[in-house]
Amino acid sequence: MNHIVIIGFMGSGKTRVGKRLSQDLNLPFIDVDRVIFRKMDMTMKEIFQRFGEPYYRALETMVIKELMKDPEQKVISLGSGLPMQEQNQKYLKNLGTIVYIKGSYETLKKRLEGSSSDPFLDGDNREDKIKKLLKQRDPVYSKYADIEVVTGVKPFDSLVKEIEEKLSAYTKK
């Protein structure tokens, strides 16, 4: 099944873009993190604290395996850590067309100010953590992306239009 799969760093706008694409393309929208939160009736922080990161990653793998079997095309937003897991990387290309929403450090830092939902940013040296995670994740996201767009440099509507145009051109290949 060729789903439209949105990847990117936390704060890149994956959910907002995914919801808009699903409206514009008349496709259902799925946020993998939210599916997990509903199934577990817990937040990401609570799952990490109670069960640990490997457990959360296993839940992500379970959800994307289910989505791969779903014959109905969807727009899917992946958690920012999902593409980093080796067990998930083999599924990414089979899931669909990968759209990487790339953000600069400055854009992401600004958007993540005051956010407390991601356990990776807890504690001191938040800026250093963002830089380190970006440095680790950007090459992996780029490796798997079929389409790459940059967020934070143009209005939201223009970003969505750019993605839709690139998707249209990509699917015609």
Task: Describe the protein in words.
The chain is α/β, with parallel strands linked by helices. It has helices at residues 14-25, 32-40, 44-51, 53-69, 86-95, 105-112, 126-144, 156-171, and strands at residues 3-8, 29-31, 75-77, 96-103, 147-151. The protein is globular and about 45 Å long.
Shape estimate: globular
Helix-strand sequence: EHEHHHEHEHHEH
Number of helices: 8
For the termini, the CA-CA separation is 17 Å
Low-confidence stretches: none
Biggest sheet architecture = 5 strands, parallel
| Rg from alpha-carbon coordinates | 15 Å
Decide which structural class fits the backbone. alpha/beta
Number of strands: 5
Mean pLDDT: 90
What portion of the residues fall into strands of 2 or more residues? Answer: 5-15%
Percent helix among the residues?
55-70%
Strand order of the largest sheet: 2-3-1-4-5
